[in-house]
Amino acid sequence: MSHVPTTSVTLMTAVYRKIFPAVKTELQKWESRAKQIPNNELRTQALASIASKRFHCQGGAVFALLAGERWKEAVRFIVAYQTISDYLDNLCDRSTSLDPNDFRLLHQSMEDALSPGNSVKDYYQLREDQEDGNYLIDLVETCQDVIRNTENKEHMRIHLINLEDMYANLQIHKHVILEERIPRLTKWYERNKVKVPTLTWYEFAAAAGSTLGIFCLLSYALSGRLDKKLAEAIYDSYFPYMQGLHILLDYFIDQQEDKEEGDLNFCDYYPSKEKMKERFTFFINQTDNRVRKLPDAKFHKMVHHGLVGLYLGDMKVKTLDSGHEIAKDLLKISGNRARFFNMNTKIYYKLSKNKNAV
What we know:
mainly alpha, 15 helices, about 0% strand
């Protein structure tokens, strides 16, 4: 029997009582492992990724509520897979390497994590920093272990690999030398725009950068409810609009930070703030239309509105030019649920900060 939350209150109750504590336990385990990494640079980036991006694991782990009785296994997978993602993002963002072959080999770990039949590799072979005490391999094998024990995994395989391939290509193209980034990203888009005719190159890149579709597929598979038709419906509902909205909101709140760090930010490519708001509204409306066709439609709609509330509840919004006004308009468009999650997010972060709970 599935007990998927159908109201904002039951969702938040399950998140606070079950999901966040389980995520905290898993992250503490990986943080402890990261502290033992012999190489100083790898250890620094592994610990930094957990410290600064743990909310990615918290948000992603909400999908574990779709896994029924196997929700703890879903949390285990989601935290491990998201930790790989955040760690590699730090390695590519903050390292001295600008070699696309190095980035491709690093991200092979994410494909291997989704493929129990794949053998693990020396993912650091093309970079100077090497010894991580099997940290990355252990993360990969944790994900493989969960998928290996999942029913009907063949139904999600092609969609998992498609989503991962787009994610890996994005990470490779956006981290090479500065003058090659936009040409590579736009060429990649040209090869794929038939799949996403309504998107610009930077919106396609954003849609490729989310792990939400993977977490949704895996959680349904763990519940035993996934068949071929549902797997296709999840893929079509989450890519490109739900995933695109997710990452565009992430970039939106990071605009000032990315400017200071000199990092690529896709929100910079909108011709105006008005156009950006108009396109965000388009993504919100398209996501609403797609997810209502899924089973547990109320849950997916809450996750969608939760994303809007969660990201726009971040304190970084206050640092942005017109940030408050744009956030206010988007919350209004998204409705009462988004405002509910926005308020809860602000309260949770205040309490967490005071108690040092997360």
